[in-house]
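Final report, Chapter 2: Outcomes

The project's central promise was a pipeline that accepts a single protein chain and returns its three-dimensional structure in a standardized token representation, suitable for archiving and comparison. That pipeline is now operational. To close this chapter, we reproduce one record exactly as it appears in the project archive, with the input sequence first and the structure output second.
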Amino acid sequence: MNSLREKELAGQGREPLPARLQLGCANIAPPGWTNLDGSWNAWLAGHPFLRRVITVFRVIPAVQLDITWPGNILVHDVRRGLPFSDGSFYAIYASHLLEHLYFEEARQLLQECFRVLQPGGLLRLVVPDLHTLVQEYLKDLNSGDLSRDCPADRLCRRLDMRPPQQRKVHFLYRLYSSVKDFHTHKWMYDGESLGRHMSEAGFVSISRKAYLESAIAGIEEVERRDRFDNHHGICLEGMKPLAPAASR
């Protein structure tokens, strides 16, 4: 129990953390998982009075305040590493999180996932599939159909790097967004690139998986079909080796 967060939980007399970790859980935080999220809404879930104040002054867009967030979320920014001891978990799940990080941040997170997994533990990642998005762009481009907006504009919307126009929000929320910058995509992946980066972090037996096709027990508790279908998601699952790789 080396991390500050684990010591805090132990000091509060809580049970040990569940051995399955979900990163970027949003408001899907089932029991039996350690659910971690770094967003403002996750933090406000544990501060109901402040949430009411922010609601009155409309600091956060109303559509976000209307979402109910459970109170069993550990609030933490994954860009600062994972606040857990080595080998704490036997499974890690993250859906549509990696693309919200800069490339080097994502690589560091993969290394952190490797560290906190037990030998033989599994990492399952779901991200938007760049290959599918580009294929759709080329199909639109070659179809000659000009009845809708142009293919390049549709591709930019699907990539979700930036919104079509600057949102009119409270200046405090604008400041938060500029500091955290959670909500737009920074780097995109296809199956080949995601698998390569997982391999570079040390994972083996990496394979593409369909919705709910997993060696992780209870994956249906956290996985959403729309992350595969409507968002053209691709899923890879890899394992931390049972024995450390031999040094050369």
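Archive annotation: Residues 4-129+182-239 form a domain with the Rossmann fold fold (CATH 3.40.50.150).
This record, like all others produced under the grant, will remain available to the consortium after the project formally closes.
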